[in-house]
Amino acid sequence: MASPAPASPPPPGSPAVVDRGVPMSPVHYKAWAKGTSHKFEDTWQEQRPTEIILGKEKKEMAGLAIGIASMRSREQALLHVGWELGYGKEGSFSFPNVPPMADLIYEVELIGFDEAKEGKARSDMTVEERIEAAERRKVEGNDYFKEEKLEEAMQRYEMAIAYMGDDFMFQLFGKYRDMALAVKNPCHLNMAACLIKLKRYEEAIGQCTIVLSEDENNVKALFRRGKARSELGQIDAAKEDLQKARKHAPQDKAIVRELRLLAEHDTAVYQKQKEIYRGIFGPRPEPKPESSNRLVVFWRWLVALIYSLLKFRRHKKE
Q: In angstroms, what CA-CA distances link 123 with 9, 15, 21, 53, 183?
């Protein structure tokens, strides 16, 4: 993991600078105060990248922005930021909770510099403009997905999602919220599809869960989360998701096939356990036929009778 030193924004001509607008950087990061292990922010855990607009970042993110400006797309870095370029002398006692004069550590992944092709920063866009820009990133991601370029596809989906940050979504109601979710949710679902192909099942589950928090009956989200859970061996949870998906799409062949695979898995596990228990306890003893039991009793009686007669004759001679 690289550790770029704090630097000024790149000179003109680099990917981080554009002719119009300002450079915008969707990033994932974890942050904690130096000398502690408590992370006060973690966008990976929330499955939502953060948008940083270089030159217009929040004051407490000045150090983070300087470090990001020297990074390349998909680069990961560990940044050390002094308190003067972080939360300052006072710190923060709300959210996030940061001690006073705390030097900060950032574990960062730069998703990419998203050039302001629309001619303005996202913060200056109307709702419609942001949704349209996100839609364009989603379409680009779909094209990469069709070409099996999964990392590039996920980069575009994350850029699209960054247009729909929590601060933005909280402001939306009615048709505007529906319009935004119609772009945002497919990006999360497509991210999940990429992650399943890459066998990153826990992350796929997280993407599907975000969609289900908005639409609890979303069939694609239920199916993909069920599939990811199945791959992780979470059989009961996988069945629950897939059965709920089948309830809403009973003719979907992919759902039926996945449920059949789970049923076959259950059968295989049962047979295996049966063999194990048979090996531990051994075969059950076969009951002896009743006729053979009577024969044994008869022979025992006959031997005892002969023995008694012989004993009697010996006693008589004496």
A: 20, 21, 11, 9, 18
In this structure, what are the phi and psi dihedrals at residue 79, rounded to the nearest 5 degrees? -105, 135
Residue with tokens 């974890």: 30
Query: Quick one: pLDDT band at residue 265, thresholds 50, 70, 90?
Result: confident
Here the tokens at position 3 are 């550790």
- The pTM score is 0.64
The model's pLDDT over 148-184, given as tens digits with 9 standing for 90+, comes to: 999 999 999 998 998 888 778 888 889 999 999 999 9
Residues 140, 198: Cα–Cα separation, whole Å? 19
Are 108 and 27 in contact by the 8 Å Cβ rule? The answer is: yes
Helix intervals (H) in 249-289: 253-281
End-to-end CA distance of the chain: 107
Cα separation, 213 vs 39, whole angstroms:
24
Beta strands in the chain (DSSP E): 24-33, 39-42, 50-53, 76-81, 104-110
